[in-house]
UniProtKB/TrEMBL annotation:
Belongs to the ferrochelatase family. Catalyzes the ferrous insertion into protoporphyrin IX. This is Ferrochelatase. NCBIfam families: hemH. It comes from the Bacteria. It comes from Candidatus Kinetoplastidibacterium crithidiae TCC036E. InterPro entries: Ferrochelatase (IPR001015), Ferrochelatase_AS (IPR019772), Ferrochelatase_C (IPR033644), Ferrochelatase_N (IPR033659). Pfam families: Ferrochelatase (PF00762). The gene is hemH. Keywords: Cytoplasm, Heme biosynthesis, Iron, Lyase, Metal-binding, Porphyrin biosynthesis. Its EC number is 4.98.1.1. GO terms for molecular function: ferrochelatase activity; metal ion binding. It is an enzyme of class 4 (lyase).
């Protein structure tokens, strides 16, 4: 449960503190135009695609945005929930549960969730906090491992929005939590709870979102953060480390990406006679297209068609109680001196 609030000096705080939870993004609906708007915004970010802007915009508008939205619509249709995309639904639940816990503990802060691309927008949520008299804002990108293309992009965008204000609020952000105890403990508990119900696999694949190798060569610490998370997770799982594998998914384009590739690992395991494999994706704190469709649909089919017999995807942390309580405590350590 949550740590004692007197320790943090947070009881009876007022609502001039805002917490902005930010995830990557999602289209408003599965309509082609909404998907096109979302990926157009996402792939126009020069922290995401580091090609010369003029050349890339021609490729993006003449090829990618004409073909990709229809393909993505079929994928989003498979995972869409009645309330919206899974990423939207779980991000909203995280914000609502955090707000409820803070209020139960007499910590009266304002909490908003938003997306870097798509809906709800950073602009809308940030303006809502400022209009609600927030003089101090904690930006919390929901990415355990830091990358210029995720956390870096969010911080840059929020900074641009804030400097347009005449009365700029005090501002800080959480850069990473890839090795935080609460995060690793939440992952371990989530995995063991799954295994207690479904039994143990022959191998566990720990899949992170990929990144172009060129980004790592330029100094992006993402790969190092992933290795750190993988090492800590492997050491605490009480499972044979020799059958736990790290991998990277979601390759886009033709450039070299960090390896090993998740799909290649799964094919190799199937070819070696591994009958059951479980996959967990620690870089995603909420289930989304990359976990529910790419991993649980495409990778499942790949493993089974390559000779594997049993494939299990272990859900993201989503709105698990241990995870939400850990988020609350992490936030409190970052705002205690503001009260």
């Amino acid at each position: 449960m949550s740590a004692n609030n007197d320790h943090y000096g947070l009881k009876n705080s007022n609502r001039n503190i805002g917490i902005l939870l930010v995830n990557l993004g999602t289209p408003k609906s599965t309509k082609i135009n909404d998907i096109r708007e979302y990926i157009g915004s996402f792939l126009s970010d020069n922290r995401v695609v580091e090609l010369p802007r003029f050349i890339w915009q021609i490729i993006l508008r003449t090829i990618v945005l004409r073909t990709r939205p229809r393909k993505l619509k079929k994928l989003y249709d498979k995972i869409w929930m009645p309330e919206g995309s899974p990423l939207y639904v779980y991000s909203k639940l995280q914000a609502l549960k955090l707000e409820r816990i803070f209020l139960q503990n007499n910590i009266n802060v304002q909490i908003k969730f938003c997306m870097r691309y798509g809906y709800p927008s950073i602009k809308e949520s940030l303006d809502s906090l400022i209009d609600g008299s927030c003089e101090k804002i904690l930006l919390f990108p929901l990415f355990p491992q830091y990358s210029s293309s995720t956390t870096g992009s969010i911080v840059e965008y929020v900074g641009r929005r804030l400097i347009c204000k005449r009365d700029i609020p005090e501002f800080r952000y959480i850069k990473r939590f890839s090795s935080s105890k609460f995060y690793i403990d939440s992952l371990v508990t989530n995995i063991h709870n799954y295994w207690n119900t479904h039994g143990f696999p022959n191998s566990l694949v720990v899949s992170f979102h990929g990144l172009p190798q060129n980004s790592i060569d330029k100094g992006d610490p993402y790969y190092k953060d992933c290795i750190e998370t993988f090492t800590l997770l492997s050491s605490q799982l009480n499972f044979d480390k020799n059958i736990i594998y790290i991998s990277f998914q979601s390759k886009f384009g033709y450039s070299k990406w960090i390896k090993p590739c998740t799909s290649e690992i799964l094919v190799d395991l199937a070819n070696r006679g591994v009958s059951r494999v479980d996959v967990v994706c620690p870089g995603f704190v909420s289930d989304c297209l990359e976990t529910l469709e790419e991993i649980n649909e495409q990778c499942r089919h790949l493993f089974l068609s390559s000779g594997g017999r049993d494939f299990h995807y272990i859900n993201a942390l989503n709105d698990n109680e241990d995870w939400i309580n850990g988020l609350e405590n992490l936030i409190k350590t970052h705002i205690y001196d503001w009260v």
